[in-house]
Amino acid sequence: MESYPLSYAEATVHLCLFEVSNAAELRSRLVTASQLPDDDRGDEERAAVDFAFIDAKMITSRLHALTAVQQALLARSDGTLKTKTIHSEVLWMLEPGSNISDSLKHFGLSASTRHLLLVHIGSANGGDAAQERSAAEGVWRRMEAIVEGKAISLEQLGRLPDGGTDEKGIRKTYKLNQDAVFKNLPLGTPEALEVLDRLTTSTVALKVAT
């Protein structure tokens, strides 16, 4: 897990990439939590799954994901969130269009998810290193409690093993199939993946302005 204290946003961002084996159960748990009443049990279960659950096959790099986080934080500070929570806003920021349902369909957890990127945006700790470490350990324990699988390096985003990165799906979602830059760049080549990362990240970075 990697943690990024962002004092200017009064937030700390935690990211972890997993090879996951309980995607279907996790998705069912998310749906159930959203339907529970506003009581102690419901609040406790919603807190347990208070993350952005992102299907990592649609993420081209760490920067791609962090750019969506940054845009969500900007929307929160401006009071312009399009969704109910900061974590669902991260998913919406990844979506090149404006449809919230499409963002869940394209980037959200599904029963077939093999690689899961978990994002948690928490409060800042005033630059106190000990408090930051304690908070990060708490987030990590919460991740471990719900995910069955193993954590892998975030460096693998965009280059997941065994064809785990859906390059065709990313090109389609971001409407890049006709982009001339890909004409001589076959799928899966390092050059194609590098260009894909630049284009997707730029699209997310410009979303607030569109």
From TrEMBL:
Which GO biological process categories is it annotated with? tRNA threonylcarbamoyladenosine modification
One Gene Ontology cellular component term attached to this UniProt record is: cytosol
Where is this protein found?
Nucleus
The record's keywords, sorted A to Z, are: Nucleus, tRNA processing
Entry superkingdom? Eukaryota
Alphabetical list of InterPro entries matching this protein = CGI121/TPRKB, CGI121/TPRKB_sf
Q: What's the chief localization of this chain?
A: nucleus
Does the record bear DNA repair in its keywords? no
Q: Which residues form a coiled coil?
A: none
Q: Belongs to which family?
A: Belongs to the CGI121/TPRKB family.
Q: What does this protein do?
A: Component of the EKC/KEOPS complex that is required for the formation of a threonylcarbamoyl group on adenosine at position 37 (t(6)A37) in tRNAs that read codons beginning with adenine. The complex is probably involved in the transfer of the threonylcarbamoyl moiety of threonylcarbamoyl-AMP (TC-AMP) to the N6 group of A37. CGI121 acts as an allosteric effector that regulates the t(6)A activity of the complex. The EKC/KEOPS complex also promotes both telomere uncapping and telomere elongation. The complex is required for efficient recruitment of transcriptional coactivators.
Family annotation (PANTHER family): CGI-121 FAMILY MEMBER (PTHR15840), EKC_KEOPS COMPLEX SUBUNIT TPRKB (PTHR15840:SF10)
The name under which this protein is listed is: EKC/KEOPS complex subunit CGI121
Taxonomic source organism: Rhodotorula taiwanensis
Which lineage?
A: Eukaryota, Fungi, Dikarya, Basidiomycota, Pucciniomycotina
